[in-house]
Write a structure and sequence with these properties.
The chain is of the alpha+beta class and about 525 residues long. The chain has 21 helices and 11 strands.
Length: about 525
């Protein structure tokens, strides 16, 4: 069986007819030699005239594609093509491949995974090359990527990076928890150091009798130090990994609310871009690759609910899915996505399933609703005692700074010398403990106002879409009439790298005619 390792690139002109090779489709396919003469046989196919398939492929390969060389076998653990992909893109691509039945086009993966066509193409090529996948070419020039059932295990066996990624993710989670705990513990440590230094400075100027009398105060001070059992309870790592519920008690341990109060709890809309593009891609694909701007507006960043003539918010969609505007018979502007109109599977989501999926993914609404930034997900009680401890620490730092300036300490002991050296850090920690939350609060206030504006605009667009007027209804019907979705069956496949060239039958004259049309149109 011939599998994928080298790349030929054929780029049809965007103004070619569908009767040649699908106007806006670029197809990249790679062939590893089943035997030594495989590549020569393929390139020599149709040598009966000077404008044959082989000459076109050679010209294209020399001018647009890298040199064609067989890929050597890869030892387990060495760098492979899939290692060069972003982990998120690779994982989303493989999930899309599994969902579509392991026989996909680039458009299938871009639609289901919500990634760009270029990202999908590179990921499919890399994974196919590393897992002995093969290609199928249809009579319309569509390229399908087909993967074996065990392609995931093959990929993991070759890639050390993929095998170690779960452990790296766990290490990152542990490091994040350690940072949270360290910052929270620093507050307790700062309070203890500051007030111990204050008492030490005051008592250093007193007589032995006064020191003896004040020993009891040191006994009460020891109560501020947490016992070993308290420290163990503060450091419970499982608090960070478990799901949190912020109704009433935040579910955090003793230390985590300190970090949450100062730095917050991260982006509440993390992952929203992935959700957005998955929804948009699946909506376009399920509606035959032709939609109106009004249909996608509830899931894009629209700033106003008013209709605009140029629909500027559609530009990111056109760039991501290689779309193009077109005008219907009555002058309505529609948006066509030819790469999403042809699929290798019939398992893609149907229209009736999309409404349910949209509601599940965007919180029960029919528009993309962003969450507002919260100051902290801690409870009111936790915020009260955290701010109280921060205030005590700030007060202590101010008092300690005054004592260090006004009181001249003769021959300070080791502890006081240590405090003098780290006092700038104590000041920085005490002031930033309230300065950082204040800045965050101001930024969150302005950010939430913009989020509220976008959410309101999307909601109004969704309402207009649910109750369309006659103009919008006719525009949507026009888009449905122009839509087209084709499932590429096995009966349309004219070439596959699964078989040797000598085992397959070709109409060389037809192929030569198609490539000649491409050449003439350039």
């Amino acid at each position: 069986m011939a599998s994928i390792s080298t790349c030929f690139k054929v780029t049809p002109n965007h103004h070619s007819k569908l009767s040649s090779l699908n106007p806006s489709r670029q197809f990249h396919y790679s062939l590893r030699t089943h035997h030594v003469n495989f590549r020569n046989n393929f390139l020599n196919l149709g040598m009966h005239n000077s404008n044959s398939l082989s000459s076109v492929l050679k010209n294209r390969a020399s001018s647009e594609a890298p040199s064609v060389e067989a890929t050597p076998r890869v030892s387990p653990g060495k760098i492979i093509e899939s290692d060069k992909l972003l982990a998120d893109v690779r994982n989303r691509t493989m999930d899309a491949v599994d969902k579509c039945g392991r026989r996909v086009t680039v458009g299938d993966v871009a639609t289901v995974a919500g990634i760009t066509l270029i990202e999908a193409q590179k990921a499919l090529q890399a994974i196919a090359a590393d897992t002995n996948g093969f290609l199928e070419v249809s009579n319309e020039g569509d390229v399908l990527y087909v993967y074996p059932k065990d392609y995931r295990s093959k990929l993991a066996a070759k890639s050390l990076r993929i095998r170690t990624e779960p452990y790296i993710d766990k290490a990152k989670s542990g490091a994040e928890f350690l940072i949270r705990v360290t910052f929270g513990t620093a507050l307790i440590a700062s309070i203890l150091i500051v007030f111990t230094a204050i008492i030490a400075i005051l008592t250093s100027a007193s007589s032995k009798k006064d020191r003896k009398r004040r020993r009891s105060s040191f006994g009460s001070l020891r109560q501020l130090y947490p016992s070993p059992s308290d420290l163990f309870r503060m450091w419970k790592p499982h608090h960070y990994s478990r799901p949190r519920h912020y109704d009433g008690d935040s579910g955090m341990n003793f230390i985590e609310p300190v970090f949450s109060f100062v730095f917050g709890d991260g982006n509440p809309n993390e992952g929203i871009e992935e959700v957005r593009w998955k929804l948009i891609g699946q909506y376009i694909g399920s509606n035959g690759g032709v939609v109106t701007a009004e249909e996608l507006a509830p899931y894009l960043d629209v700033e106003t609910a008013e209709k605009m003539d140029d629909d500027p918010y559609m530009l990111p969609v056109l760039l991501r899915f290689n779309g193009q505007p077109q005008v219907d018979e009555v002058g309505n502007i529609l948006y066509s996505f030819p790469s999403l109109q042809r699929t290798g599977t019939s398992n893609r989501d149907k229209k009736e399933d999309l409404g349910r999926q949209f509601c599940e993914r965007v919180g029960g609404t029919m528009f993309l609703k962003e969450k507002k930034w919260a100051f902290s997900k801690t409870s009111n009680t936790e915020r009260a005692w955290v701010s109280g401890l921060g205030g005590i620490n700030l007060f202590g730092v101010i008092v300690l700074g005054t004592l260090l300036k006004d009181i001249k300490i003769i021959e300070p002991d080791g502890f006081i010398s240590f405090v003098i050296k780290i006092f700038p850090l104590l000041q920085l920690y005490a002031t930033s403990f309230f300065a950082i939350p204040l800045v965050r609060w101001y930024i969150a206030l302005k950010t939430n106002a913009k989020i509220e504006k976008r959410n309101r605009a999307r909601e109004l667009r969704a309402q207009a879409l649910n109750l369309p007027d006659n103009f919008l209804r006719q525009k949507i019907l026009s888009a449905r009439e122009m839509s087209k979705k084709t499932v590429i069956g096995q009966d349309e496949i004219v070439y596959t790298t699964k078989k040797d060239v000598s085992e397959q039958e070709y109409d060389t004259q037809e192929w030569d005619r198609r490539f000649q049309d491409i050449k003439n149109s350039n």
